[in-house]
Amino acid sequence: MEDPETLVVEEDFPLFSNSFSSKKPQNPPPPQSQNPSLVSKPPNPTESTESDSGSLTFSDLGLAEWAVQTCAALGMKKPTPVQRHCIPRILAGADVLALAQTGSGKTAAFALPILHRLSENPYGVFALVVTPTRELAYQLAEQFRALGSSLHLRCTVVVGGMDMINQAQVLAQRPHVVIATPGRIKVLLEDNPDLSFVFSRAKFLVLDEADRVLDVGFEAELRVIFQYLPKDRQTLLFSATMTNNLQALHQLSANRAYFYEAYEGFKTVDTLKQQYVFIHKNVKDVYLLHILSQMEDLGIRSAIVFASRCRSCHLLNLLLEELDQSVAALHSHKSQSLRLAALNRFKSGRVPILLATDVASRGLDIPTVDLVINYDIPRYPRDYVHRVGRTARAGRGGLAVSFVTENDVHLVRAIEAEIGKQLDEFECKENEVLADITKVFKAKRIATMKMIDDGYEEKAKERKSQKLKTLAEKGLLKRKRKNKKL
Ligand code: AMP
């Protein structure tokens, strides 16, 4: 896999640059409160303020009364830092680049001001929100619908794996808010010329998890999408991590987008216990079973187990089923309907364990997740931060246990450097863990046979050649090889 960190967006990338040429520099938002720190401070990249303006209410941020009441009804008593800083700027018309931890309330930080403006002049399509994964698109739609419940909001999700004809028909009816993954919206726009005007009056473009959306795979899609959007829109970029692409965009915008960064250099929360267990790769499954079978005793309501590849995720699914564990699996080799079904079974509590690849590492907000297991150590530290961010959300506690083999030591060092702390050792009695070794090895043999029988490998090969074909069509194959040599 290519390192997205090495890719930098080109200078003509039409994100902020178009709008800035025609836009005056942004003024600070109008005074909404007596608190001088919020209203008079110019945008400052190092701004990280937990203590300032902590007493502000949603009403102080300039939001309409209906929005304030909706927040109260949803149990959102006061704005989180990212909301306190970004909502007034967005209401004042600024473009925003915000780095905020997952679970920090960043969705409401852009959804509330968009809905506020929509309520003043309702029409569709008012906002296009682009997000990297299908599951996040559905989750964002849920939040938009909840926050816009008193507006008769029409919000639609346009993602791959679902019926395109139906999506085109819904888009033609111009919903207020469209939440999309980049590939599908691009194809819909290109294949349906009659849809080209649907976004022509859009006021907002949001890139959620912007770092990933801007990875090279999506750059081509974004270029197409931009052609259908007006130049005088507001562009809002929200991301949990800073990447070279985002840095470059911010510089290209001559720093005129309001930049907000929360928790600088501090990317995992204190309420999260982060532990590791150093083991041989052959006994990972034995340790996994041991920890999962103790969940109830440890008071763990639900757990997500991350594997780095779809193949291992599928094999783990078969293995744990063989070991009578109640599990669901989420990875990109499944159809969209199976992915949604798996996620819903987990979210509703019908199964306590979700096996997932990094497709589930970002943004998913499931309050019952008390444990994250890194069955494989992620290759990039930022994926670790995203994964463990599925637990210990909104001030709650949580545990992350990472399985470290001798090949992973350098990866763990990089993670520790990134998060600025060392992982603690996970305490367990080896002889107790290994008591189940025969049972687990036997189940693994059966699971491996089942995987041969269900034709997974053939399907995976087919998918791979299809993907290579698509990359070649996009002209991305050559570029990847070139980057590899550097
Ligand atoms: P997000 O970072 O957007 O994924 O949000 C994480 C969770 O925090 C969601 O379940 C939101 O409903 C919740 N949330 C957002 N804003 C607030 C707030 N001001 N007070 C309490 N909860 C919030």
From TrEMBL:
Annotated motif Q motif, positions: 56-84
Domain DEAD-box RNA helicase Q, residue spans: 56-84
Residues annotated as domain Helicase ATP-binding: 87-260
Record flagged with keyword DNA repair: no
Family the entry assigns: Belongs to the DEAD box helicase family.
SUPFAM superfamilies xref list: P-loop containing nucleoside triphosphate hydrolases
Region (Disordered) residue spans: 17-56
Organism field: Cinnamomum micranthum f. kanehirae
SMART domains: DEXDc, HELICc
GO cellular component: cytosol
PANTHER family on file: ATP-DEPENDENT RNA HELICASE (PTHR47959:SF24), ATP-DEPENDENT RNA HELICASE RHLE-RELATED (PTHR47959)
Superkingdom as given in the UniProt entry: Eukaryota
Chain intervals with Polar residues compositional bias: 46-56
Record-linked InterPro entries: DEAD/DEAH_box_helicase_dom, DEAD_box_RNA_helicase, Helicase_ATP-bd, Helicase_C-like, P-loop_NTPase, RNA-helicase_DEAD-box_CS, RNA_helicase_DEAD_Q_motif
Signal peptide: none
Keywords of this entry: ATP-binding, Helicase, Hydrolase, Nucleotide-binding
The UniProt record lists the keyword Transcription: no
All copies of domain Helicase C-terminal, residue ranges: 294-434
Protein name: RNA helicase 36
A GO molecular-function annotation: RNA helicase activity
